Write the structure tokens for this entry.
Amino acid sequence: MPGEFDFIDWVRRQQSSSKTVLQPAGDDLAILKWSADDLLLVGVDQVLDGVHFDSSVHEPQAIGRKAMNRNLSDCAAMACLPAAAVISFALPHGVGVDFAKQLYQGIRQAGDKFDCPIIGGDTGSWNGKLAITITILGKSAGIEPVCRSRAKIGDQIYVTGPLGGSILRRNMEFEPRIHLARQLAKNFRITAMIDLSDGISRDLPDICKGGTVGAVIHANAVPIHADVSKLPDHADPLSHALHDGEDYELLFTSPDHIPPNLATPIGQITDGNAVEIEISNGQRLPLQAKGWEHPL
């Protein structure tokens, strides 16, 4: 019966070298050629069965695509280009090699869209649920990376798309905003940026903490996705837009006017450390963090 080593041999046969990847998966370490005038960015992200996906419902290729796309979205958050990825599977006993291959193929499909090859990794099996960990390597490629810590008082706060209701579809199938992030960073002064994985109410405070600033969001300016109206509890659409998370749009700040076809202004960076929302009558209330947080 095919086992782990058959799967690893199969993975090795999927690899190919390139100008950047001199030695892909198959040795103890991959070998990359890196330009002296470029910056290397490195990140890691993990997805867990029962938290980020449901393996009893979602197809393995869709799970793999989401795992990779989350990492690619982190590249978008810093306006860098993905260069390569290393993956690790903790597979439940008994899922079989075909299941593992489909996971790999989903990861590769997502990476291929952005010329991001898989250059190595590790597999194991256990009595627990499926866990996938991906380490992403990115390159600045002529554009200075955008951090989340440089927002300035007076900057406008923008989002790149409508929010809320991602649980219906977009939490599994989404397009990382890499090209849009690069366009924004190249043509405008982007002072801070983050991808909306946990929701505005949790991700915006991260920007504020990094820049030791506050923020005010205008309730009537927040774009709400049409999917919200399809939710059973759709009576408060704004709450979904602020807290649902896993939209994977970009939240960023800039002193510049950003064209409406690229992003929507939803508020301003303010003095102090309060993160607030301004409701219809002009009253400001604290923006309570209700987005996703892993319980410990």
Observations:
- The chain has a mean pLDDT of 92.
- Residues 156-286 form a domain with the Phosphoribosyl-aminoimidazole Synthetase; Chain A, domain 2 fold (CATH 3.90.650.10).
